[in-house]
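User: I've been going back and forth on whether these two constructs are worth ordering. Before I decide, could you fold them both?

Assistant: Sure. I'll take them in the order you sent them. The first construct and its structure tokens:
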Amino acid sequence: MSIAHSWILTEIVRFLICTAVFLILTFLLDAVFPNKKESH
């Protein structure tokens, strides 16, 4: 059971890391290259 539990934790951590990286990259891209939608 411990192996399966560790595998689930690894998948959850991997998902959280990927989500965090995606959000950070999106934020940096918006800061460097502002979207044309926000032209006002």
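The second construct, handled the same way:
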Amino acid sequence: MIRVLLADDQELVRAGIRLVLKHAPDIDVVAEASDGPEAARLAVRHQVDVAMLDIQMQGTDGLCAAERIAGSAPSVRVVMLTTFGEHAYVERALKAGVAGFLLKDSTPQELIQAVRRVASGAPVVSPQITRHLIDRYLDTEEKPADPRLSRIAELTSREREVLAMVGTGASNAEIGKRLHLGEGTVKAYVSRMLTKLSCANRVQAALLAHDARLLRGGG
């Protein structure tokens, strides 16, 4: 059973997410918090597996709560709940090692699958967030060379194709449709590709794909 903590200063939002997760037989919402300090305390007290935190809460924001949880309960996997317009927070959290990012308007199935994937150790980033971060990155004029670029040569041709599509912000379902592969097969390719490139998540891999010019036929 995956033990989950929900933290959002809006009770209605917590109720909606709780209702969605209630339909998953392997997920149990064991605690709820309305601010960051309470979330950090409850994550430890209830020994949760996954903490789903709103990025912006009154008092202490979700990022501060995530940092506190990382210090007091490093085994807890943190998922940040965000809306469009908060991507500066997302970039900061990526650097802090947060396990996942989901838009608040994600579908019920996306929420459930995200909890399961994060609990299993896999990173989760909404494709919409990936696309936005890529656009912001491409607008940056000066970018230091990434030492991981050389590892792209170790990828198979199929893995390079998958990497190029991840670079566009495509979801696994979109990649599967384009390459005529099952979604499970795509997930396996993405997992191997991330491991070979030492990337923690799809966003890092997408930025590498852009640096390697894979989307323009180069690299």
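Notes on the second construct follow. The mean pLDDT is 83. The first strand starts at residue 2 and ends at 7.
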